[in-house]
Design brief:
This protein is an alpha/beta fold. It has helices at 2-21, 41-50, 66-79, 96-110, 129-138, 205-220, 254-265, 281-292, 309-316, 319-324, 358-363, 374-388, 396-400, 404-413; strands at residues 56-65, 84-89, 114-120, 141-145, 164-167, 171-175, 196-201, 239-246, 269-274, 277-278, 296-302, 328-332, 340-344, 348-352, 356-357, 366-372, 391-394. It has 14 helices and 17 strands. Helix 4 (96-110) packs parallel to helix 5 (129-138) and helix 9 crosses helix 14. The structure holds SN-glycerol-3-phosphate (G3P). It comes from Lysobacter brunescens.
Length: 420
Protein backbone atom coordinates (compact mmCIF):
# COMPACT_ATOMS: atom_id res chain seq x y z
CA UNK A 1 0.00 0.00 0.00
CA UNK A 2 2.76 2.42 0.99
CA UNK A 3 4.67 1.65 -2.26
CA UNK A 4 1.57 2.55 -4.29
CA UNK A 5 1.19 5.74 -2.31
CA UNK A 6 4.85 6.75 -2.75
CA UNK A 7 4.75 5.89 -6.48
CA UNK A 8 1.58 7.93 -6.96
CA UNK A 9 3.06 10.86 -5.11
CA UNK A 10 6.30 10.74 -7.13
CA UNK A 11 4.30 10.52 -10.37
CA UNK A 12 2.26 13.51 -9.31
CA UNK A 13 5.40 15.51 -8.52
CA UNK A 14 6.92 14.51 -11.89
CA UNK A 15 3.77 15.65 -13.73
CA UNK A 16 3.70 18.98 -11.90
CA UNK A 17 7.40 19.59 -12.65
CA UNK A 18 6.96 18.61 -16.32
CA UNK A 19 3.90 20.88 -16.68
CA UNK A 20 5.82 23.73 -15.09
CA UNK A 21 8.69 23.46 -17.53
CA UNK A 22 6.86 22.48 -20.75
CA UNK A 23 7.19 25.00 -23.62
CA UNK A 24 5.00 23.74 -26.44
CA UNK A 25 5.31 26.71 -28.86
CA UNK A 26 7.58 26.55 -31.87
CA UNK A 27 10.57 28.88 -31.96
CA UNK A 28 12.40 30.40 -34.89
CA UNK A 29 14.10 27.60 -36.78
CA UNK A 30 15.13 28.86 -40.20
CA UNK A 31 17.79 31.33 -41.20
CA UNK A 32 16.50 34.72 -42.37
CA UNK A 33 17.84 35.49 -45.83
CA UNK A 34 19.49 38.78 -46.72
CA UNK A 35 16.91 41.01 -48.40
CA UNK A 36 16.46 44.69 -47.71
CA UNK A 37 19.24 46.51 -45.87
CA UNK A 38 18.86 48.56 -42.69
CA UNK A 39 18.79 51.76 -44.74
CA UNK A 40 15.84 50.50 -46.76
CA UNK A 41 12.37 51.74 -45.68
CA UNK A 42 11.14 48.16 -46.18
CA UNK A 43 13.41 46.96 -43.34
CA UNK A 44 12.19 49.68 -40.97
CA UNK A 45 8.58 48.91 -41.90
CA UNK A 46 9.03 45.24 -41.05
CA UNK A 47 10.91 45.89 -37.79
CA UNK A 48 8.34 48.47 -36.85
CA UNK A 49 5.41 46.08 -37.03
CA UNK A 50 7.06 42.78 -36.16
CA UNK A 51 8.68 43.84 -32.91
CA UNK A 52 5.62 45.50 -31.47
CA UNK A 53 5.49 49.27 -30.93
CA UNK A 54 6.12 51.13 -34.18
CA UNK A 55 8.97 53.51 -34.88
CA UNK A 56 8.33 57.05 -33.66
CA UNK A 57 10.06 60.18 -34.97
CA UNK A 58 11.18 63.19 -32.94
CA UNK A 59 13.44 61.68 -30.30
CA UNK A 60 16.77 62.58 -28.80
CA UNK A 61 19.01 59.88 -27.34
CA UNK A 62 22.17 60.70 -25.42
CA UNK A 63 24.69 58.07 -24.35
CA UNK A 64 25.98 58.08 -20.77
CA UNK A 65 29.38 56.47 -20.31
CA UNK A 66 30.05 54.47 -17.15
CA UNK A 67 28.78 55.08 -13.63
CA UNK A 68 30.41 58.52 -13.46
CA UNK A 69 27.97 59.74 -16.14
CA UNK A 70 25.11 57.33 -15.61
CA UNK A 71 24.30 57.58 -11.91
CA UNK A 72 24.34 61.39 -11.58
CA UNK A 73 22.09 61.67 -14.66
CA UNK A 74 19.58 59.13 -13.32
CA UNK A 75 19.66 60.52 -9.77
CA UNK A 76 19.27 64.12 -10.95
CA UNK A 77 16.28 63.07 -13.06
CA UNK A 78 14.71 61.27 -10.09
CA UNK A 79 15.27 64.29 -7.83
CA UNK A 80 13.58 66.54 -10.40
CA UNK A 81 10.47 64.34 -10.82
CA UNK A 82 7.17 66.10 -10.23
CA UNK A 83 4.45 63.55 -10.90
CA UNK A 84 5.67 59.99 -11.36
CA UNK A 85 8.75 57.76 -11.23
CA UNK A 86 8.61 54.26 -12.66
CA UNK A 87 11.72 52.21 -12.16
CA UNK A 88 12.30 48.58 -13.15
CA UNK A 89 15.65 46.89 -12.77
CA UNK A 90 17.31 43.51 -12.50
CA UNK A 91 20.34 44.10 -10.26
CA UNK A 92 19.72 46.16 -7.11
CA UNK A 93 22.27 45.43 -4.43
CA UNK A 94 23.10 47.11 -1.16
CA UNK A 95 25.95 49.59 -1.16
CA UNK A 96 26.59 53.21 -1.89
CA UNK A 97 24.73 53.31 -5.20
CA UNK A 98 21.76 51.38 -3.82
CA UNK A 99 21.53 53.79 -0.90
CA UNK A 100 21.67 56.87 -3.15
CA UNK A 101 18.80 55.56 -5.26
CA UNK A 102 16.75 54.59 -2.18
CA UNK A 103 17.32 58.07 -0.69
CA UNK A 104 16.35 59.89 -3.88
CA UNK A 105 13.28 57.72 -4.50
CA UNK A 106 12.17 58.04 -0.87
CA UNK A 107 12.56 61.81 -0.88
CA UNK A 108 10.36 62.12 -3.98
CA UNK A 109 7.77 59.72 -2.56
CA UNK A 110 7.58 61.84 0.60
CA UNK A 111 7.13 64.93 -1.61
CA UNK A 112 4.00 63.34 -3.10
CA UNK A 113 5.40 61.97 -6.36
CA UNK A 114 3.92 58.58 -7.30
CA UNK A 115 6.94 56.26 -7.07
CA UNK A 116 6.60 52.72 -8.46
CA UNK A 117 9.61 50.42 -8.23
CA UNK A 118 9.77 46.92 -9.67
CA UNK A 119 12.81 44.85 -8.69
CA UNK A 120 13.58 41.40 -9.92
CA UNK A 121 13.38 39.05 -6.94
CA UNK A 122 16.55 37.15 -7.88
CA UNK A 123 18.47 40.21 -9.06
CA UNK A 124 17.75 41.99 -5.78
CA UNK A 125 18.52 39.16 -3.32
CA UNK A 126 21.63 41.06 -2.27
CA UNK A 127 19.59 44.13 -1.37
CA UNK A 128 19.25 44.94 2.29
CA UNK A 129 15.62 44.86 3.48
CA UNK A 130 16.26 48.19 5.22
CA UNK A 131 16.49 49.95 1.83
CA UNK A 132 13.22 48.42 0.78
CA UNK A 133 11.54 49.40 4.04
CA UNK A 134 12.91 52.92 3.73
CA UNK A 135 11.29 53.38 0.31
CA UNK A 136 8.01 51.76 1.34
CA UNK A 137 7.73 53.81 4.53
CA UNK A 138 8.33 56.95 2.47
CA UNK A 139 5.28 56.06 0.37
CA UNK A 140 6.85 54.36 -2.66
CA UNK A 141 5.26 51.18 -3.96
CA UNK A 142 8.05 48.63 -4.25
CA UNK A 143 7.31 45.22 -5.79
CA UNK A 144 9.49 42.16 -6.23
CA UNK A 145 9.12 40.44 -9.60
CA UNK A 146 8.28 36.74 -9.35
CA UNK A 147 9.33 35.96 -5.79
CA UNK A 148 10.02 32.29 -5.11
CA UNK A 149 6.73 30.50 -4.40
CA UNK A 150 5.94 26.79 -4.46
CA UNK A 151 3.32 27.31 -7.21
CA UNK A 152 5.59 29.44 -9.37
CA UNK A 153 8.51 27.08 -9.94
CA UNK A 154 8.19 27.05 -13.72
CA UNK A 155 8.61 30.83 -13.72
CA UNK A 156 11.58 30.94 -11.37
CA UNK A 157 13.95 30.89 -14.32
CA UNK A 158 12.09 33.75 -16.07
CA UNK A 159 13.46 36.91 -14.54
CA UNK A 160 12.79 40.51 -15.42
CA UNK A 161 16.05 41.73 -16.82
CA UNK A 162 14.53 45.01 -18.04
CA UNK A 163 16.26 48.23 -17.11
CA UNK A 164 13.81 51.08 -17.43
CA UNK A 165 13.46 54.38 -15.63
CA UNK A 166 10.68 56.80 -16.62
CA UNK A 167 10.32 60.25 -15.08
CA UNK A 168 6.95 62.04 -15.32
CA UNK A 169 6.15 59.85 -18.34
CA UNK A 170 8.39 61.94 -20.57
CA UNK A 171 12.05 61.27 -19.76
CA UNK A 172 13.40 57.75 -20.12
CA UNK A 173 16.57 55.82 -19.32
CA UNK A 174 17.65 52.39 -20.46
CA UNK A 175 20.86 50.48 -21.03
CA UNK A 176 23.02 48.00 -19.21
CA UNK A 177 23.57 49.47 -15.78
CA UNK A 178 22.76 47.68 -12.54
CA UNK A 179 22.21 49.40 -9.20
CA UNK A 180 25.39 48.26 -7.49
CA UNK A 181 28.80 49.65 -6.62
CA UNK A 182 30.71 47.77 -9.33
CA UNK A 183 29.15 50.20 -11.82
CA UNK A 184 30.65 53.24 -10.06
CA UNK A 185 33.57 55.10 -11.62
CA UNK A 186 34.79 55.09 -15.20
CA UNK A 187 36.06 51.57 -15.82
CA UNK A 188 39.39 52.60 -14.33
CA UNK A 189 40.21 49.18 -12.85
CA UNK A 190 38.85 45.69 -12.33
CA UNK A 191 36.57 46.84 -9.49
CA UNK A 192 34.78 49.38 -11.69
CA UNK A 193 32.87 47.97 -14.64
CA UNK A 194 32.54 49.40 -18.14
CA UNK A 195 28.93 50.09 -19.09
CA UNK A 196 26.63 52.41 -20.99
CA UNK A 197 23.16 53.76 -20.38
CA UNK A 198 21.00 56.12 -22.45
CA UNK A 199 18.97 59.21 -21.61
CA UNK A 200 15.98 59.51 -23.92
CA UNK A 201 13.68 62.47 -24.59
CA UNK A 202 10.76 62.46 -27.00
CA UNK A 203 7.66 60.46 -27.96
CA UNK A 204 9.39 57.06 -27.68
CA UNK A 205 9.40 57.49 -23.88
CA UNK A 206 5.69 56.57 -23.92
CA UNK A 207 6.83 53.13 -25.12
CA UNK A 208 9.20 52.93 -22.13
CA UNK A 209 6.19 53.64 -19.93
CA UNK A 210 4.16 50.94 -21.69
CA UNK A 211 7.04 48.47 -21.27
CA UNK A 212 7.13 49.23 -17.55
CA UNK A 213 3.36 48.81 -17.33
CA UNK A 214 3.63 45.34 -18.86
CA UNK A 215 5.45 43.94 -15.85
CA UNK A 216 3.76 46.24 -13.34
CA UNK A 217 0.41 44.78 -14.34
CA UNK A 218 1.83 41.24 -14.08
CA UNK A 219 3.08 41.99 -10.56
CA UNK A 220 0.32 44.13 -9.11
CA UNK A 221 -2.74 43.69 -11.33
CA UNK A 222 -2.84 47.49 -11.63
CA UNK A 223 -2.22 49.75 -14.60
CA UNK A 224 -0.46 53.09 -14.35
CA UNK A 225 -2.18 55.53 -16.66
CA UNK A 226 -3.33 59.13 -16.86
CA UNK A 227 -1.39 62.28 -17.77
CA UNK A 228 1.14 61.73 -14.98
CA UNK A 229 2.30 58.60 -16.77
CA UNK A 230 1.32 59.23 -20.38
CA UNK A 231 1.53 62.99 -21.00
CA UNK A 232 1.60 64.41 -24.48
CA UNK A 233 5.29 64.41 -25.40
CA UNK A 234 6.51 67.01 -27.90
CA UNK A 235 9.35 66.20 -30.32
CA UNK A 236 12.78 66.57 -28.71
CA UNK A 237 15.02 65.79 -31.66
CA UNK A 238 15.06 64.08 -35.02
CA UNK A 239 15.83 60.46 -34.21
CA UNK A 240 13.47 57.62 -35.16
CA UNK A 241 13.25 55.08 -32.35
CA UNK A 242 11.14 52.39 -30.77
CA UNK A 243 11.28 50.37 -27.58
CA UNK A 244 10.08 46.78 -27.73
CA UNK A 245 9.83 44.04 -25.15
CA UNK A 246 10.20 40.31 -24.98
CA UNK A 247 8.94 37.87 -22.40
CA UNK A 248 8.40 34.12 -22.37
CA UNK A 249 4.80 34.99 -21.44
CA UNK A 250 4.33 36.80 -24.79
CA UNK A 251 6.51 38.12 -27.60
CA UNK A 252 9.31 35.81 -26.48
CA UNK A 253 10.98 35.77 -29.89
CA UNK A 254 11.18 39.55 -30.36
CA UNK A 255 14.80 39.94 -29.32
CA UNK A 256 16.00 36.90 -31.21
CA UNK A 257 14.05 38.07 -34.25
CA UNK A 258 15.46 41.59 -33.96
CA UNK A 259 19.06 40.34 -33.94
CA UNK A 260 18.45 37.83 -36.73
CA UNK A 261 16.71 40.38 -38.95
CA UNK A 262 19.32 43.07 -38.31
CA UNK A 263 22.24 40.76 -39.00
CA UNK A 264 20.52 39.44 -42.14
CA UNK A 265 19.95 43.03 -43.32
CA UNK A 266 23.56 44.15 -42.82
CA UNK A 267 25.41 45.12 -45.98
CA UNK A 268 28.60 46.76 -44.65
CA UNK A 269 29.29 46.38 -40.96
CA UNK A 270 28.17 44.81 -37.72
CA UNK A 271 29.71 46.16 -34.53
CA UNK A 272 28.61 44.23 -31.48
CA UNK A 273 29.53 44.72 -27.83
CA UNK A 274 28.20 41.86 -25.76
CA UNK A 275 28.71 41.38 -22.03
CA UNK A 276 27.46 37.82 -22.33
CA UNK A 277 27.90 36.27 -25.77
CA UNK A 278 26.42 32.78 -26.02
CA UNK A 279 24.80 32.63 -29.46
CA UNK A 280 22.59 29.84 -30.73
CA UNK A 281 22.98 28.07 -34.07
CA UNK A 282 20.77 30.53 -36.01
CA UNK A 283 22.71 33.54 -34.80
CA UNK A 284 26.01 31.85 -35.62
CA UNK A 285 24.77 31.04 -39.13
CA UNK A 286 23.57 34.62 -39.60
CA UNK A 287 26.92 36.13 -38.53
CA UNK A 288 28.85 33.75 -40.80
CA UNK A 289 26.52 34.46 -43.73
CA UNK A 290 27.09 38.19 -43.21
CA UNK A 291 30.86 37.65 -43.36
CA UNK A 292 30.49 35.63 -46.54
CA UNK A 293 28.71 38.49 -48.28
CA UNK A 294 31.51 40.90 -47.32
CA UNK A 295 30.14 42.48 -44.14
CA UNK A 296 32.84 43.38 -41.61
CA UNK A 297 31.77 41.79 -38.34
CA UNK A 298 33.50 42.99 -35.17
CA UNK A 299 32.57 41.45 -31.84
CA UNK A 300 33.85 42.99 -28.62
CA UNK A 301 33.56 40.78 -25.54
CA UNK A 302 34.77 40.87 -21.94
CA UNK A 303 38.23 39.48 -21.38
CA UNK A 304 39.55 37.79 -18.25
CA UNK A 305 37.60 40.14 -15.97
CA UNK A 306 34.25 38.66 -16.98
CA UNK A 307 32.16 37.96 -13.87
CA UNK A 308 31.05 34.52 -15.08
CA UNK A 309 33.70 31.95 -15.95
CA UNK A 310 30.98 29.57 -17.09
CA UNK A 311 29.64 32.04 -19.65
CA UNK A 312 33.18 32.62 -20.90
CA UNK A 313 33.63 28.89 -21.44
CA UNK A 314 30.33 28.45 -23.29
CA UNK A 315 31.07 31.56 -25.31
CA UNK A 316 34.59 30.53 -26.31
CA UNK A 317 33.42 27.17 -27.53
CA UNK A 318 31.83 29.05 -30.47
CA UNK A 319 34.62 31.43 -31.27
CA UNK A 320 36.52 28.96 -33.46
CA UNK A 321 33.91 28.72 -36.18
CA UNK A 322 33.32 32.48 -36.07
CA UNK A 323 37.04 33.25 -36.36
CA UNK A 324 37.44 30.76 -39.20
CA UNK A 325 34.49 32.39 -40.96
CA UNK A 326 36.05 35.86 -40.78
CA UNK A 327 34.44 37.37 -37.66
CA UNK A 328 36.84 39.64 -35.75
CA UNK A 329 36.77 38.88 -32.03
CA UNK A 330 38.22 41.27 -29.44
CA UNK A 331 38.56 40.98 -25.67
CA UNK A 332 38.17 44.07 -23.49
CA UNK A 333 41.10 44.29 -21.10
CA UNK A 334 40.77 46.82 -18.25
CA UNK A 335 37.70 45.46 -16.44
CA UNK A 336 34.39 43.65 -16.89
CA UNK A 337 32.73 45.02 -20.03
CA UNK A 338 28.97 44.96 -19.45
CA UNK A 339 27.81 46.78 -22.61
CA UNK A 340 24.94 45.66 -24.80
CA UNK A 341 25.32 47.43 -28.13
CA UNK A 342 24.68 46.59 -31.76
CA UNK A 343 25.44 48.98 -34.61
CA UNK A 344 24.55 47.84 -38.13
CA UNK A 345 25.85 49.57 -41.26
CA UNK A 346 26.52 52.66 -39.13
CA UNK A 347 22.80 53.33 -39.41
CA UNK A 348 20.85 51.30 -36.87
CA UNK A 349 21.69 51.10 -33.16
CA UNK A 350 20.19 48.66 -30.69
CA UNK A 351 20.66 49.14 -26.94
CA UNK A 352 18.89 48.11 -23.78
CA UNK A 353 18.86 45.22 -21.36
CA UNK A 354 19.21 42.37 -23.84
CA UNK A 355 22.32 40.23 -23.72
CA UNK A 356 23.51 38.32 -26.76
CA UNK A 357 22.63 34.96 -25.28
CA UNK A 358 19.90 32.38 -25.27
CA UNK A 359 18.78 33.42 -21.77
CA UNK A 360 17.95 36.90 -23.05
CA UNK A 361 16.36 35.54 -26.24
CA UNK A 362 14.18 32.93 -24.56
CA UNK A 363 13.99 33.10 -20.77
CA UNK A 364 14.11 36.67 -19.53
CA UNK A 365 11.79 39.63 -19.82
CA UNK A 366 13.81 42.17 -21.80
CA UNK A 367 13.36 45.68 -23.21
CA UNK A 368 15.51 47.12 -25.97
CA UNK A 369 15.43 50.30 -28.00
CA UNK A 370 16.38 50.57 -31.65
CA UNK A 371 17.43 53.96 -32.99
CA UNK A 372 17.66 54.76 -36.70
CA UNK A 373 19.79 57.83 -37.00
CA UNK A 374 23.01 58.24 -38.91
CA UNK A 375 24.62 60.75 -36.52
CA UNK A 376 23.78 58.65 -33.45
CA UNK A 377 25.04 55.49 -35.18
CA UNK A 378 28.31 57.24 -36.03
CA UNK A 379 28.60 58.41 -32.42
CA UNK A 380 28.09 54.85 -31.18
CA UNK A 381 30.62 53.56 -33.72
CA UNK A 382 33.13 56.01 -32.23
CA UNK A 383 32.31 54.68 -28.73
CA UNK A 384 32.76 51.14 -30.06
CA UNK A 385 36.13 52.02 -31.53
CA UNK A 386 37.21 53.69 -28.32
CA UNK A 387 36.39 50.48 -26.45
CA UNK A 388 38.25 48.54 -29.13
CA UNK A 389 41.35 50.58 -28.30
CA UNK A 390 41.22 48.93 -24.85
CA UNK A 391 40.85 45.46 -26.28
CA UNK A 392 43.12 42.77 -27.67
CA UNK A 393 42.26 40.84 -30.80
CA UNK A 394 41.70 37.13 -30.28
CA UNK A 395 42.91 35.01 -33.17
CA UNK A 396 42.19 31.62 -34.67
CA UNK A 397 45.71 30.51 -33.64
CA UNK A 398 45.01 31.48 -30.04
CA UNK A 399 41.75 29.57 -30.13
CA UNK A 400 43.38 26.44 -31.54
CA UNK A 401 46.15 26.60 -28.94
CA UNK A 402 43.88 26.94 -25.91
CA UNK A 403 44.64 24.35 -23.22
CA UNK A 404 43.00 20.94 -23.24
CA UNK A 405 41.52 21.65 -19.80
CA UNK A 406 39.57 24.54 -21.32
CA UNK A 407 38.29 22.41 -24.18
CA UNK A 408 37.06 19.76 -21.74
CA UNK A 409 35.32 22.36 -19.56
CA UNK A 410 33.69 23.90 -22.64
CA UNK A 411 32.24 20.53 -23.58
CA UNK A 412 30.89 20.17 -20.05
CA UNK A 413 29.13 23.55 -19.91
CA UNK A 414 27.80 23.63 -23.49
CA UNK A 415 24.75 21.43 -22.81
CA UNK A 416 23.59 24.03 -20.28
CA UNK A 417 24.24 27.09 -22.42
CA UNK A 418 20.58 28.10 -22.67
CA UNK A 419 20.50 28.57 -18.90
CA UNK A 420 23.63 30.73 -18.54
O1 LIG B 1 22.36 40.22 -16.36
P1 LIG B 1 22.98 41.57 -16.55
O2 LIG B 1 23.43 41.78 -17.95
O3 LIG B 1 22.17 42.68 -16.02
O4 LIG B 1 24.29 41.51 -15.68
C1 LIG B 1 24.21 41.32 -14.31
C2 LIG B 1 25.48 40.73 -13.85
O5 LIG B 1 25.61 39.45 -14.38
C3 LIG B 1 25.56 40.65 -12.39
O6 LIG B 1 26.64 39.88 -11.98
Amino acid sequence: MSIILVTSLLTLVAIVVAMNFATPEKKLERRIEHGSTVRDPQFRREMSVMLGPGLLPGNHVRDLQNGDDIFPAMLDAIRAAERSINFETYIYWSGDVGRQFADALSERARAGVQVSVLLDWLGSVKMDDALLRQMTEAGAQVEKYRPLKWYNLGRINNRTHRKILVIDGKLGFTGGVGIADQWNGHAQDADHWRDMHFRVDGPVVAQFQAAFNDNWIKSTGKVLNGPGHFPSIPPAGDMDAHMFIASPAGGSESMHLMYLMSIAASAESIDLEAAYFVPDALILQALLAACRRGVRVRVLLPGRHIDSATVRLASRAHWGELLRGGVEVYEYQPTMMHNKLLVVDRTMVSVGSTNFDVRSFRLNDEASMNVYDRAFALRMTAVFEDDLAHAVRYTWDMWRARPLREKVLEALVLPFKSQL
